[in-house]
Design brief:
Elements lengths: L3 H4 L2 H19 L3 H10 L1 H6 L4 H8 L6 H8 L8 H8 L2 H13 L1 H11 L3 H12 L8 E2 H10 L4 H17 L8 E2 L12 H7 L15 H14 L9 E5 L15 E2 H6 L3 E2 L15 E5 L8 E4 L1 H7 L5 H14 L18 H13 L13 H13 L10 H13 L2
Antiparallel strand pairs: 1-2, 3-5, 3-7, 4-6, 6-7
The structure holds calcium ion.
Amino acid sequence: MRSPERVLPRLAALALFVLLAGCVSHVRGQTQGELEACVGRLQPAAQKAGIDTAAYRQFTRDARFDATVLEKLDYQPEFRLPIWDYLAGLVDDERVADGMAMLAEHRAVLQKVEAAYGVDPATVVAVWGVESNYGRITGKYPLVSALGTLSCFGRRQDYFRGEFFAALRILQRGDIAPERLNGSWAGAFGHTQFMPATYERLAVDFDGDGRRDLVDNSTDALASTANFLRRGGWQTGQPWGFEVRLPAGFDAALAGRKQKRPLADWGAMGIVAVDGSPMARSGLASGDKTAILLPAGARGPAFLVTRNFDVIYGYNAAESYALAIAHLSDRLRGGGHFATPWPTDDPGLSRAERRELQTLLTARGHDIGEIDGALGDRSRAAIKLEQARLGQDATGRGGQKILRALRAESTANR
Ligand code: CA
Protein backbone atom coordinates (compact mmCIF):
# COMPACT_ATOMS: atom_id res chain seq x y z
CA MET A 1 0.00 0.00 0.00
CA ARG A 2 1.30 3.40 -0.92
CA SER A 3 1.37 6.21 1.55
CA PRO A 4 -1.22 9.01 1.13
CA GLU A 5 1.56 11.53 0.46
CA ARG A 6 2.38 9.79 -2.80
CA VAL A 7 -1.21 9.34 -3.84
CA LEU A 8 -2.35 12.88 -3.24
CA PRO A 9 -1.10 15.74 -5.38
CA ARG A 10 1.45 17.72 -3.45
CA LEU A 11 -0.70 20.79 -2.96
CA ALA A 12 -3.60 18.80 -1.63
CA ALA A 13 -1.23 17.03 0.73
CA LEU A 14 0.09 20.35 1.93
CA ALA A 15 -3.45 21.66 2.47
CA LEU A 16 -4.32 18.51 4.41
CA PHE A 17 -1.21 18.90 6.52
CA VAL A 18 -2.02 22.52 7.35
CA LEU A 19 -5.57 21.56 8.21
CA LEU A 20 -4.49 18.71 10.49
CA ALA A 21 -1.75 20.75 12.11
CA GLY A 22 -4.30 23.51 12.72
CA CYS A 23 -6.68 21.05 14.37
CA VAL A 24 -3.94 19.60 16.57
CA SER A 25 -2.69 22.99 17.73
CA HIS A 26 -6.27 24.11 18.29
CA VAL A 27 -7.04 21.07 20.42
CA ARG A 28 -3.74 21.07 22.23
CA GLY A 29 -2.73 24.72 22.15
CA GLN A 30 -0.16 24.01 24.83
CA THR A 31 3.19 25.62 25.04
CA GLN A 32 6.36 26.01 27.04
CA GLY A 33 4.99 29.35 28.27
CA GLU A 34 1.87 27.70 29.66
CA LEU A 35 3.98 25.07 31.37
CA GLU A 36 6.15 27.71 33.02
CA ALA A 37 3.09 29.65 34.18
CA CYS A 38 1.57 26.46 35.58
CA VAL A 39 4.81 25.46 37.33
CA GLY A 40 4.83 28.96 38.87
CA ARG A 41 1.27 28.50 40.11
CA LEU A 42 2.18 25.14 41.70
CA GLN A 43 4.94 26.65 43.82
CA PRO A 44 2.87 27.25 46.99
CA ALA A 45 1.55 23.68 46.84
CA ALA A 46 5.11 22.43 46.35
CA GLN A 47 6.19 24.36 49.42
CA LYS A 48 3.43 22.71 51.44
CA ALA A 49 4.71 19.39 50.07
CA GLY A 50 8.12 20.08 51.56
CA ILE A 51 10.05 21.63 48.68
CA ASP A 52 11.63 24.93 49.63
CA THR A 53 11.43 27.93 47.32
CA ALA A 54 15.07 27.90 46.24
CA ALA A 55 15.04 24.17 45.46
CA TYR A 56 11.79 24.48 43.56
CA ARG A 57 13.23 27.26 41.39
CA GLN A 58 16.48 25.42 40.87
CA PHE A 59 15.02 22.06 39.91
CA THR A 60 12.11 23.28 37.80
CA ARG A 61 14.19 25.83 35.88
CA ASP A 62 14.89 23.34 33.08
CA ALA A 63 11.40 21.83 32.92
CA ARG A 64 10.37 21.56 29.27
CA PHE A 65 6.89 21.11 27.90
CA ASP A 66 6.83 17.64 26.33
CA ALA A 67 3.91 16.91 24.01
CA THR A 68 5.02 13.29 23.57
CA VAL A 69 4.15 12.34 27.15
CA LEU A 70 0.61 13.66 26.59
CA GLU A 71 0.36 11.53 23.46
CA LYS A 72 1.45 8.51 25.50
CA LEU A 73 -1.11 9.37 28.17
CA ASP A 74 -3.91 9.25 25.61
CA TYR A 75 -2.50 6.39 23.54
CA GLN A 76 -4.95 3.58 22.93
CA PRO A 77 -3.07 0.59 21.57
CA GLU A 78 -4.73 -0.65 18.40
CA PHE A 79 -2.67 -3.78 18.72
CA ARG A 80 -2.66 -5.84 21.90
CA LEU A 81 -0.04 -8.51 22.24
CA PRO A 82 -1.40 -12.00 22.92
CA ILE A 83 -0.01 -13.41 26.17
CA TRP A 84 2.26 -15.84 24.30
CA ASP A 85 3.93 -12.99 22.41
CA TYR A 86 4.32 -10.99 25.59
CA LEU A 87 5.98 -13.88 27.45
CA ALA A 88 8.09 -15.00 24.47
CA GLY A 89 9.82 -11.62 24.46
CA LEU A 90 10.08 -11.12 28.22
CA VAL A 91 11.20 -14.61 29.17
CA ASP A 92 13.54 -15.72 26.41
CA ASP A 93 16.84 -17.60 26.55
CA GLU A 94 18.74 -14.32 26.40
CA ARG A 95 17.02 -12.89 29.49
CA VAL A 96 17.50 -16.19 31.32
CA ALA A 97 21.22 -16.28 30.48
CA ASP A 98 21.64 -12.62 31.45
CA GLY A 99 19.78 -13.28 34.70
CA MET A 100 22.01 -16.26 35.53
CA ALA A 101 25.03 -14.03 35.00
CA MET A 102 23.50 -11.39 37.30
CA LEU A 103 22.79 -14.01 39.97
CA ALA A 104 26.45 -15.00 39.89
CA GLU A 105 27.81 -11.46 39.72
CA HIS A 106 25.67 -10.16 42.59
CA ARG A 107 25.59 -13.32 44.67
CA ALA A 108 27.00 -11.75 47.84
CA VAL A 109 24.64 -8.78 47.75
CA LEU A 110 21.65 -10.99 46.93
CA GLN A 111 22.40 -13.22 49.90
CA LYS A 112 22.48 -10.20 52.20
CA VAL A 113 19.27 -8.93 50.64
CA GLU A 114 17.59 -12.28 51.23
CA ALA A 115 18.75 -12.28 54.86
CA ALA A 116 17.40 -8.74 55.36
CA TYR A 117 14.06 -8.98 53.50
CA GLY A 118 13.29 -12.68 53.13
CA VAL A 119 13.01 -12.58 49.33
CA ASP A 120 15.07 -15.09 47.36
CA PRO A 121 17.67 -14.03 44.75
CA ALA A 122 15.86 -15.51 41.72
CA THR A 123 12.70 -13.52 42.43
CA VAL A 124 14.58 -10.25 42.96
CA VAL A 125 16.64 -10.74 39.80
CA ALA A 126 13.54 -11.72 37.78
CA VAL A 127 11.85 -8.43 38.71
CA TRP A 128 15.03 -6.61 37.71
CA GLY A 129 15.15 -8.44 34.37
CA VAL A 130 11.55 -7.70 33.45
CA GLU A 131 11.46 -4.12 34.78
CA SER A 132 14.61 -2.75 33.18
CA ASN A 133 16.41 -5.64 31.46
CA TYR A 134 18.82 -5.68 34.42
CA GLY A 135 19.25 -1.92 34.47
CA ARG A 136 19.90 -1.55 30.74
CA ILE A 137 16.57 0.00 29.75
CA THR A 138 15.47 2.55 32.30
CA GLY A 139 13.80 5.24 30.16
CA LYS A 140 15.00 8.46 28.60
CA TYR A 141 12.41 11.02 29.66
CA PRO A 142 13.79 13.70 32.00
CA LEU A 143 11.44 13.21 34.96
CA VAL A 144 10.95 16.84 35.90
CA SER A 145 9.85 17.73 32.35
CA ALA A 146 7.65 14.64 31.92
CA LEU A 147 5.97 14.90 35.31
CA GLY A 148 5.78 18.70 35.10
CA THR A 149 3.92 18.40 31.79
CA LEU A 150 1.62 15.71 33.17
CA SER A 151 0.97 17.86 36.26
CA CYS A 152 -0.25 20.75 34.12
CA PHE A 153 -2.06 19.17 31.16
CA GLY A 154 -4.18 16.16 30.37
CA ARG A 155 -5.90 13.58 32.54
CA ARG A 156 -4.92 12.71 36.13
CA GLN A 157 -3.10 15.97 36.90
CA ASP A 158 -3.61 15.54 40.66
CA TYR A 159 -1.95 12.15 40.65
CA PHE A 160 0.99 13.35 38.58
CA ARG A 161 1.44 16.43 40.78
CA GLY A 162 2.04 14.10 43.71
CA GLU A 163 4.70 12.31 41.67
CA PHE A 164 6.16 15.61 40.40
CA PHE A 165 6.60 16.87 43.96
CA ALA A 166 8.05 13.52 45.03
CA ALA A 167 10.61 13.76 42.20
CA LEU A 168 11.55 17.27 43.32
CA ARG A 169 11.98 16.11 46.92
CA ILE A 170 14.35 13.38 45.68
CA LEU A 171 16.42 16.06 43.96
CA GLN A 172 16.24 18.37 46.98
CA ARG A 173 17.60 15.62 49.20
CA GLY A 174 20.41 15.02 46.74
CA ASP A 175 19.77 11.27 46.47
CA ILE A 176 19.95 11.40 42.67
CA ALA A 177 21.57 14.06 40.46
CA PRO A 178 19.12 16.02 38.25
CA GLU A 179 20.73 14.86 35.01
CA ARG A 180 20.42 11.22 36.13
CA LEU A 181 16.72 11.42 36.98
CA ASN A 182 15.30 10.05 33.72
CA GLY A 183 12.70 7.37 33.21
CA SER A 184 9.52 6.32 31.46
CA TRP A 185 7.10 8.90 30.09
CA ALA A 186 4.95 8.38 33.21
CA GLY A 187 7.82 8.82 35.67
CA ALA A 188 9.00 5.29 36.56
CA PHE A 189 12.77 5.42 36.82
CA GLY A 190 15.94 3.50 37.58
CA HIS A 191 16.75 -0.20 37.79
CA THR A 192 13.52 -0.91 39.67
CA GLN A 193 11.26 1.45 37.66
CA PHE A 194 9.74 2.84 40.86
CA MET A 195 7.52 5.90 40.63
CA PRO A 196 8.97 8.78 42.72
CA ALA A 197 6.37 8.36 45.51
CA THR A 198 7.10 4.62 45.63
CA TYR A 199 10.77 5.46 45.82
CA GLU A 200 10.11 7.69 48.82
CA ARG A 201 8.17 4.95 50.60
CA LEU A 202 10.25 1.91 49.74
CA ALA A 203 13.72 2.65 48.38
CA VAL A 204 16.54 1.71 50.74
CA ASP A 205 20.19 2.69 51.06
CA PHE A 206 21.60 -0.81 51.25
CA ASP A 207 25.27 -0.07 50.61
CA GLY A 208 25.23 2.54 53.39
CA ASP A 209 26.69 5.47 51.47
CA GLY A 210 23.90 7.75 52.73
CA ARG A 211 22.03 7.92 49.42
CA ARG A 212 19.17 5.81 48.12
CA ASP A 213 20.29 5.51 44.53
CA LEU A 214 18.14 3.37 42.23
CA VAL A 215 19.71 4.80 39.08
CA ASP A 216 23.42 4.09 39.36
CA ASN A 217 23.60 1.65 42.27
CA SER A 218 22.43 -1.92 41.68
CA THR A 219 22.92 -2.83 45.35
CA ASP A 220 20.39 -0.22 46.48
CA ALA A 221 18.12 -1.27 43.60
CA LEU A 222 18.13 -5.00 44.43
CA ALA A 223 17.47 -4.33 48.11
CA SER A 224 14.71 -1.84 47.27
CA THR A 225 12.98 -4.39 45.05
CA ALA A 226 13.11 -6.94 47.88
CA ASN A 227 11.81 -4.33 50.30
CA PHE A 228 8.92 -3.57 47.94
CA LEU A 229 7.98 -7.26 47.84
CA ARG A 230 8.37 -7.76 51.59
CA ARG A 231 6.20 -4.74 52.36
CA GLY A 232 3.65 -6.09 49.89
CA GLY A 233 3.31 -9.20 52.05
CA TRP A 234 5.87 -11.62 50.61
CA GLN A 235 5.76 -15.02 52.32
CA THR A 236 9.35 -16.21 52.69
CA GLY A 237 9.87 -19.70 51.33
CA GLN A 238 6.50 -19.91 49.62
CA PRO A 239 6.45 -20.49 45.85
CA TRP A 240 4.55 -18.01 43.63
CA GLY A 241 2.69 -21.01 42.30
CA PHE A 242 3.22 -23.65 39.65
CA GLU A 243 1.70 -25.04 36.49
CA VAL A 244 -1.16 -27.47 37.01
CA ARG A 245 -3.29 -29.81 34.95
CA LEU A 246 -7.04 -29.40 35.16
CA PRO A 247 -9.40 -32.38 35.23
CA ALA A 248 -11.71 -32.87 32.26
CA GLY A 249 -14.81 -30.74 32.67
CA PHE A 250 -13.21 -28.26 35.08
CA ASP A 251 -15.50 -25.25 35.44
CA ALA A 252 -13.42 -22.36 34.08
CA ALA A 253 -15.69 -19.93 35.95
CA LEU A 254 -13.88 -21.00 39.15
CA ALA A 255 -10.60 -19.60 37.82
CA GLY A 256 -9.41 -16.07 38.52
CA ARG A 257 -6.76 -14.54 40.75
CA LYS A 258 -9.28 -13.25 43.27
CA GLN A 259 -11.26 -16.49 43.59
CA LYS A 260 -9.21 -18.02 46.36
CA ARG A 261 -9.75 -21.43 47.90
CA PRO A 262 -7.71 -23.62 50.20
CA LEU A 263 -5.10 -25.59 48.28
CA ALA A 264 -6.74 -28.86 49.35
CA ASP A 265 -10.03 -27.86 47.66
CA TRP A 266 -8.36 -27.65 44.27
CA GLY A 267 -6.74 -31.02 44.85
CA ALA A 268 -10.14 -32.48 45.73
CA MET A 269 -11.43 -31.25 42.35
CA GLY A 270 -8.77 -33.33 40.64
CA ILE A 271 -6.25 -30.59 39.86
CA VAL A 272 -2.67 -31.87 39.89
CA ALA A 273 0.76 -30.33 39.39
CA VAL A 274 1.88 -30.91 35.77
CA ASP A 275 5.14 -32.45 36.92
CA GLY A 276 3.33 -34.90 39.18
CA SER A 277 4.80 -33.45 42.38
CA PRO A 278 2.50 -32.99 45.39
CA MET A 279 0.30 -29.88 45.47
CA ALA A 280 1.19 -29.29 49.14
CA ARG A 281 4.90 -28.75 48.80
CA SER A 282 7.67 -26.92 50.59
CA GLY A 283 6.33 -23.60 51.84
CA LEU A 284 2.73 -24.41 51.01
CA ALA A 285 0.15 -25.93 53.35
CA SER A 286 -3.09 -27.57 52.30
CA GLY A 287 -5.11 -24.80 53.94
CA ASP A 288 -3.31 -21.94 52.14
CA LYS A 289 -5.54 -19.74 50.01
CA THR A 290 -4.70 -20.14 46.35
CA ALA A 291 -6.29 -19.42 42.99
CA ILE A 292 -6.30 -20.91 39.51
CA LEU A 293 -5.10 -18.74 36.65
CA LEU A 294 -5.99 -19.42 33.02
CA PRO A 295 -4.15 -16.65 31.14
CA ALA A 296 -5.25 -17.90 27.71
CA GLY A 297 -8.49 -19.62 28.65
CA ALA A 298 -9.23 -23.24 29.47
CA ARG A 299 -7.27 -24.59 26.50
CA GLY A 300 -3.93 -23.00 27.47
CA PRO A 301 -1.57 -23.51 30.40
CA ALA A 302 -3.17 -23.39 33.86
CA PHE A 303 -1.47 -22.19 37.02
CA LEU A 304 -2.11 -22.45 40.71
CA VAL A 305 -1.03 -19.16 42.29
CA THR A 306 -0.36 -18.20 45.89
CA ARG A 307 -0.31 -14.97 47.84
CA ASN A 308 3.21 -14.34 46.53
CA PHE A 309 1.84 -14.11 42.99
CA ASP A 310 -0.39 -11.27 44.22
CA VAL A 311 2.66 -9.58 45.72
CA ILE A 312 4.45 -9.71 42.35
CA TYR A 313 1.22 -8.50 40.72
CA GLY A 314 1.42 -5.46 43.02
CA TYR A 315 4.55 -4.33 41.21
CA ASN A 316 2.70 -3.45 38.01
CA ALA A 317 -0.95 -4.51 38.31
CA ALA A 318 -1.02 -6.85 35.30
CA GLU A 319 -1.34 -10.63 35.47
CA SER A 320 0.65 -11.18 32.28
CA TYR A 321 3.43 -9.09 33.77
CA ALA A 322 3.37 -10.97 37.08
CA LEU A 323 3.43 -14.29 35.22
CA ALA A 324 6.49 -13.13 33.25
CA ILE A 325 8.37 -12.38 36.47
CA ALA A 326 7.18 -15.59 38.11
CA HIS A 327 8.17 -17.70 35.12
CA LEU A 328 11.53 -15.96 34.72
CA SER A 329 12.26 -16.64 38.40
CA ASP A 330 11.58 -20.35 37.80
CA ARG A 331 13.83 -20.36 34.74
CA LEU A 332 16.57 -18.72 36.82
CA ARG A 333 16.20 -21.59 39.30
CA GLY A 334 16.81 -24.02 36.47
CA GLY A 335 13.16 -24.69 35.61
CA GLY A 336 11.98 -25.31 32.07
CA HIS A 337 9.29 -24.00 29.75
CA PHE A 338 5.61 -24.47 30.51
CA ALA A 339 4.48 -28.04 29.85
CA THR A 340 1.22 -27.05 28.17
CA PRO A 341 1.54 -25.18 24.88
CA TRP A 342 -0.28 -21.90 24.33
CA PRO A 343 -3.46 -22.38 22.27
CA THR A 344 -2.03 -21.07 19.00
CA ASP A 345 -0.55 -22.53 15.81
CA ASP A 346 1.69 -19.45 15.51
CA PRO A 347 3.78 -19.08 18.70
CA GLY A 348 5.53 -15.88 19.68
CA LEU A 349 9.11 -14.77 19.04
CA SER A 350 12.04 -14.31 21.37
CA ARG A 351 13.92 -11.02 21.09
CA ALA A 352 16.64 -12.78 19.05
CA GLU A 353 13.96 -14.03 16.64
CA ARG A 354 12.41 -10.56 16.48
CA ARG A 355 15.78 -9.14 15.51
CA GLU A 356 16.14 -11.87 12.87
CA LEU A 357 12.68 -11.00 11.52
CA GLN A 358 13.59 -7.31 11.40
CA THR A 359 16.83 -8.15 9.57
CA LEU A 360 14.88 -10.18 7.00
CA LEU A 361 12.37 -7.34 6.56
CA THR A 362 15.19 -4.84 6.07
CA ALA A 363 16.82 -7.14 3.51
CA ARG A 364 13.56 -7.10 1.59
CA GLY A 365 13.76 -3.32 1.39
CA HIS A 366 11.46 -2.29 4.22
CA ASP A 367 12.47 0.72 6.26
CA ILE A 368 11.68 -0.49 9.76
CA GLY A 369 14.23 1.70 11.56
CA GLU A 370 16.64 0.29 14.08
CA ILE A 371 16.91 -3.48 14.45
CA ASP A 372 16.13 -3.53 18.15
CA GLY A 373 14.01 -6.62 18.73
CA ALA A 374 10.94 -4.50 19.45
CA LEU A 375 8.25 -4.87 16.80
CA GLY A 376 6.84 -1.34 16.62
CA ASP A 377 4.48 0.31 14.15
CA ARG A 378 6.97 0.28 11.25
CA SER A 379 7.94 -3.37 11.74
CA ARG A 380 4.28 -4.34 11.93
CA ALA A 381 3.44 -2.42 8.74
CA ALA A 382 6.24 -4.28 6.94
CA ILE A 383 5.13 -7.63 8.37
CA LYS A 384 1.61 -6.95 7.12
CA LEU A 385 2.86 -6.34 3.57
CA GLU A 386 4.95 -9.51 3.62
CA GLN A 387 2.09 -11.57 5.04
CA ALA A 388 -0.17 -10.33 2.23
CA ARG A 389 2.49 -11.12 -0.37
CA LEU A 390 2.94 -14.64 1.03
CA GLY A 391 -0.78 -15.33 1.25
CA GLN A 392 -0.83 -15.34 5.06
CA ASP A 393 -3.36 -13.52 7.21
CA ALA A 394 -2.19 -9.90 7.01
CA THR A 395 -2.40 -9.10 10.73
CA GLY A 396 0.94 -7.34 11.15
CA ARG A 397 1.74 -9.60 14.08
CA GLY A 398 5.23 -11.06 14.18
CA GLY A 399 5.06 -14.79 14.96
CA GLN A 400 6.81 -18.00 13.99
CA LYS A 401 4.89 -18.38 10.71
CA ILE A 402 6.09 -15.19 9.04
CA LEU A 403 9.59 -15.66 10.43
CA ARG A 404 9.84 -19.19 9.04
CA ALA A 405 8.48 -18.16 5.63
CA LEU A 406 10.90 -15.26 5.23
CA ARG A 407 13.79 -17.32 6.57
CA ALA A 408 13.07 -20.10 4.06
CA GLU A 409 12.94 -17.61 1.17
CA SER A 410 16.14 -15.95 2.22
CA THR A 411 17.94 -19.31 2.46
CA ALA A 412 16.61 -20.39 -0.93
CA ASN A 413 17.84 -17.16 -2.56
CA ARG A 414 21.32 -17.40 -1.16
CA1 CA B 1 23.28 3.88 48.66
